[in-house]
């Protein structure tokens, strides 16, 4: 493996991914020289210097990188870097990401990844080019899992890659939906690609590695430490054309992914749920707080947000078509004036409808022709139930 | 009864409420002269002239009004007009209401009512001054009824009058919730106050008449004709400080009430529901189409919209308080680096957290004091489940 790639691995090991100072160093001096400067303590950032010093006490970065490269190859995985054709360029937008109220370090350290480990046969850039993230609670309800599975299926069925985090609940449901559609799905992990977490999803990860991709910005063997999930979430938001949140409790990690998508100006979509469900509190709060978070109820709405203009547009919600739909205003008034039971003469109907008799007679005749009213000896009446014309079949 | 009041009754009988031409005539000439001009055919609007002529063929307006006045008194009801102190002035805002895409007559004829019939002991203006409309589907699900009852209860409990249409489903649930709280509720009917519709809600209407108000702009004896429900809905929207939609199918009458509230620039609130429910399609469509339609999940959000500034404000959604919440960033990193099982020494924890050893030791000592980490012979470990400090009780 060449020096640049090894340096990127070493840098990823030396400082947790997302560090802005390291990303800037790499941009300024290239990975190899950036690594050299960091190891020499040749950086202004005091905190970064002490972090690196603590890490260096645990091992030699070049040696760690060399071992990681070997392990990667042995696993049948590969390293993808910005130097490669398959690098998903859109994660570079993280360079400009700034989160509102970013007080915690994980909310400040949101620089692009330096490299990505990949398991699976697809070209990474191609797989992510037309992709949607579906994220949500690990403790999803049956409703959330049902909706996530449906969205995963529907997106994959329309040729979109479904990206998620491989967790229990919504993540797993979205991945499964995509797999069931025979589509492509990508799990972005917060640990090494050799030990996808949680182990309870091992069978699912095996299917994903076969039909899609497992990716991670951490070295093989890396633990799924808790802060890493949040660090990872920025990649889910940045790698995709849009993010859909299915179920989230207040203050959950999934809402953080959506906030990152919002900060990136990517389509940020939220599926509502029952207000009686604690698992939808985070979803509803996002919809209330962020005018640009878009309420979606299913795949057609999602495609409307991420799809190409003019294609994949959602039809407006409508009830079943009825013959009355095409009536003019005055006919509607006459029809609405007919009694539920019994019949009424044209004069009374005209008065009820607020129309003159001549107009009313003309409309009555048309309504009779359409089968919407019946003329009887004692006047006009509504047809018996079951004898009304079928929806969509006027006349 | 004086001439002006009788003229208002006669006008209401002569032309369906909401007619803009009639409302303008009354504004210009007063009710008595407006009635005289209409009866004499002394109006420019051809359609109005023929409507009036058809009505006049069915009876004499002054006589009809006199009879209605007698019936009103016999019922123990009363007529309230703009000349009365208890007239709810806010319905006058309907004068400026214009609906987008108003093609049907019911969407154009949205002028203020000329008078209102009232059954019940409360002062009408006072009852409606601090009121919220809660509307929704007649075919509400158990979820919708549960939510509407809760909102009705919560609003009434906070001293707000709950206004609705007395229909099955959401309307009835909202009324019942308010009654159960021992609060005030108002049913705005689309027929005479002597025969509230639907008859299946008769017991409910009796309770409302006793503890709240039944009101209508139609003469006693008037039928609940279908167009009247839409005409009535504008009064529900205009009489209240805001409207909440709980459940609505696509293209339902309840969505029309909310559209009227939106057009009046009143707080227009929508409760979301499961996207798998046909009964929430209309609600979600409104939230998608109207940026000023506000998603609400319960009474605190509703009060935030309609309440006086500074009072009745909703707290942000939060999970239960945890001792970790008040930790600084570096302590969080150390805490998150502790292994799920077993213990780790300070050097390893420092490296995992990306901190220098001295900082890590300081944070470890504090975390130990807070009971969030335990110091053992083999290093620092998470406390056993059940031995962690209780939420909200740091230290």
Automatic annotation (TrEMBL), chains A, B:
Location of the Smf/DprA SLOG domain: 79-306
UniProt-listed InterPro entries: DprA, DrpA_SLOG
One Pfam family in the UniProt entry: DNA_processg_A
SUPFAM superfamilies noted in UniProt: MCP/YpsA-like
Family membership noted in the UniProt record: Belongs to the DprA/Smf family.
UniProt protein name: DNA-processing protein DprA
């Amino acid at each position: 493996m060449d020096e640049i790639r090894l340096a990127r691995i070493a840098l990823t090991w030396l400082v947790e991914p997302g560090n802005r100072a390291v990303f800037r160093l790499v941009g300024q001096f290239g990975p190899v020289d950036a690594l050299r400067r960091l190891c020499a303590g040749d950086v202004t950032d005091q905190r970064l210097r002490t972090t690196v010093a603590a890490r260096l006490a645990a091992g030699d970065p070049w040696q760690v990188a060399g071992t990681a490269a070997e392990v990667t190859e042995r696993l049948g995985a590969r390293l993808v870097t910005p130097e490669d054709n398959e690098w998903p360029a859109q994660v570079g937008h993280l360079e400009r990401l700034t989160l509102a109220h970013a007080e915690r370090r994980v909310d400040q350290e949101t620089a692009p990844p330096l490299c990505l480990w990949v398991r699976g046969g697809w070209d990474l850039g191609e797989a992510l080019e037309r992709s949607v993230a579906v994220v949500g609670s690990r403790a999803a309800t049956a409703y959330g899992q049902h909706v996530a599975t449906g969205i995963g299926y529907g997106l994959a069925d329309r040729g979109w890659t479904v990206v998620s985090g491989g967790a229990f609940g919504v993540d797993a449901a979205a991945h499964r939906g995509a797999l069931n559609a025979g589509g492509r799905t990508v799990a972005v992990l917060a640990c090494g690609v050799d030990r996808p977490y949680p182990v309870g999803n091992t069978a699912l990860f095996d299917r994903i590695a076969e039909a899609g991709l497992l990716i991670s910005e951490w070295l093989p063997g890396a633990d799924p430490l808790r802060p890493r999930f949040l660090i990872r979430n920025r990649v889910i938001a940045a790698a995709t054309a849009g993010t859909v949140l299915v179920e989230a409790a207040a203050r959950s990690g999934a809402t953080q992914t959506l906030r990152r998508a919002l900060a990136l100006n990517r389509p940020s979509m939220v599926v509502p749920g029952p207000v009686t469900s604690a698992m939808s509190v985070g979803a509803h709060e996002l919809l209330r707080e962020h005018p640009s978070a878009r309420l979606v109820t299913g795949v057609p709405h999602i495609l409307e947000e991420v799809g190409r203009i003019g294609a994949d547009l959602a039809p407006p919600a409508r009830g079943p078509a009825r013959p009355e739909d095409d009536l003019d205003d005055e006919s509607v008034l006459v029809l609405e004036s007919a009694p539920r039971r019994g019949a009424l003469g044209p004069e009374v109907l005209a008065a009820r409808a607020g129309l003159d008799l001549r107009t009313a007679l003309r409309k009555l005749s048309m309504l009779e022709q359409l089968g919407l009213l019946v003329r009887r000896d004692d006047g006009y009446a509504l047809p018996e139930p079951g004898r009304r014309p079928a929806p969509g079949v006027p006349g």
